[in-house]
Specification:
alpha/beta, 11-stranded mixed β-sheet, 35% helix, globular
């Protein structure tokens, strides 16, 4: 077979024209994984093609995909990249897996990730870090780094990831692919190993916006096994991608940039060196340049650029890192060495089995977050920390609601920097947490967000992602603008 960076449409057309069979395209990807995964470590496990009849009418017929290793696939090992689950075999399919199977998709394997989705670099995996296909000395982002790297290296046509605070969008940005986080409640979380249940959301990583819309068509919908899913009408997200976006209002939060008012020039002007040095978020010059030029591209496509404000943006990161560890401490309490997963067989007493199993099975980052969360929820501190964080979360949501009364979408960076070197920030968890500064507000507000590649940084030569944020359950508009932008960027 020819070396083609296949999209979903390519697979559909190839099958229809009989350029290849379902078995041949699956074998093609298996061979690529065997050849390239040794250097990338994007996959933790691979599957054989399951014998089935692929109906050409199925929207994902024979499309080979990869699944993040915190999503259950019946009868296969699901580790969440943790030693405590290294031998756990899934007893059922996650709802999203059932939907992909019904659509005819083929599953290549499970992808590497930060342990229990805790991280922004995929360095926290118990099975070694994943490497960025664009530069093997750099991280692919996290926590869905294996999925992003697999798609970027064409070791899968698309992949599923999960996004709790940017874990789809940030690795998509670092690896130069499209990453979509749907509205909280748009896609079922049943069968996803929970990290922070009020924030987690499953979504696709794809090679273009059309494919992201196609996969969302399959994943979206109410699920009786997930009470947080919304029983809302689901449009065909691919139907209106080409519809004109002239006149749509695009909001640029002034908090994303240290810059004067944009009222006169509409596109945010470049800050002075002094202003840039004073930016606490650490937004790099090359990322800022690409984001600003992409905003100008939207203006050229007929959108109206307006400055907006998100007054509580500066509190989002602290709020997120109070709520998330609290929910982690509750969700990870089930991994006790008794019901499933790793068990310390040498312990003589039940309490010792708990302590030793968790000490041996959990890595450094889960332990850190469990302790922080347990402290925040403890007697005497609950009101001061967790409850206060939930109140600020409401203020952040209110800021977005107010902004969307004036604009149709909100745009900005995905991450302050391009992909950093492996090991560069691993000793400084606070530096890693700052990578989430532009993505966590979206999860706190439960909104849909997408990362679209907008070129490479002038200094690093690495991919830069452009983030777009939509109204709650308005992925249709979000994807339409993203698609139009993608087409516009191809022409320049």
């Amino acid at each position: 077979m020819n070396e083609v960076n296949y999209t979903i449409r390519d697979i559909q057309e190839g099958l229809q024209k009989k350029s290849f069979s379902a078995e041949e395209i699956f074998s093609h990807y298996q061979k690529k994984i065997d050849k390239d995964n040794k250097k990338l470590n994007a996959y933790l496990s691979t599957f054989d093609l399951q014998p089935t009849t692929h109906n050409p009418q199925q929207s994902l017929a024979a499309v080979p995909c990869a699944i993040k290793d915190n999503i259950l696939v019946d009868g296969t090992i699901c580790t969440a990249s943790s030693k405590i689950l290294k031998n756990y075999v899934s007893a059922y399919d996650a709802t999203v897996i059932k939907k992909l199977k019904s659509a005819g998709a083929s599953f290549l394997g499970k992808t590497n990730m930060d342990e229990f989705a805790m991280g922004t670099s995929t360095e926290n995996s118990a099975f070694g870090p994943t490497k960025n296909p664009h530069d093997l000395t750099r991280v692919p982002g996290g926590s869905s780094g294996g999925s992003a790297a697999a798609v970027a290296a064409d070791l899968a046509v698309f992949a599923l990831g999960s996004d709790t605070g940017g874990s789809i969008r940030q690795p998509a940005a670092f690896c130069g692919v499209v990453g979509l986080k749907p509205t909280y409640g748009r896609v079922s979380r049943h069968g996803l190993i929970a990290m922070a249940s009020s924030l987690d959301q499953i979504g696709p990583l794809t090679k273009n916006v059309y494919d992201a819309a196609s996969v969302l068509n399959i994943l979206a919908g109410h699920d009786q096994f997930d009470s947080t899913t919304a029983n809302k009408n689901i449009p065909d997200f691919t139907e209106n991608l080409s519809k004109d976006i002239k006149g749509l209002k695009v909001g640029v939060p002034k908090e994303f940039f240290t810059a004067p008012s944009v009222a006169s020039s509409r596109t945010p002007p470049k800050p002075s060196a002094t202003e840039r040095e004073g930016r606490g978020e650490g937004l790099s010059a090359e990322v800022e340049e690409k984001v600003r030029s992409t905003i100008s591209k939207l203006e050229g496509l007929g959108c109206k650029i307006e400055e907006i404000t998100l007054p509580n943006f500066e509190y989002a990161l602290a709020t997120y890192y109070m709520i998330v560890p609290s929910e982690i401490s509750a969700n990870l309490s089930r991994f006790d060495g008794i019901r499933y997963g790793h068990s310390a067989g040498s312990a003589s007493m039940l309490i010792d089995t708990y302590f030793e199993s968790r000490a041996e099975g959990f890595g450094q980052e889960p332990k850190r977050r469990i302790m922080l969360g347990a402290y925040a929820l403890s007697s005497g501190y609950y009101d001061a920390y967790y409850l206060k964080a939930q109140k600020v979360r409401r203020l952040i949501k209110n800021d977005f609601d107010s902004a969307f009364e004036k604009v149709d979408i909100i745009v900005g960076p995905v991450s302050p920097t391009t992909a950093f070197k492996i090991g560069e920030k691993s000793s400084d968890p606070l530096a890693l947490y700052l990578e989430d500064i532009y993505t966590v507000p979206v999860n706190l507000a439960g909104l849909p967000g997408i990362s679209v590649p907008c070129g490479n940084g002038k200094d690093s030569g690495l991919p830069v992602g452009f983030q777009m944020i939509g109204r709650s359950f308005d992925e249709e508009t979000l994807l339409r603008v993203a698609y139009q932008l993608e087409q516009g960027l191809k022409l320049t």
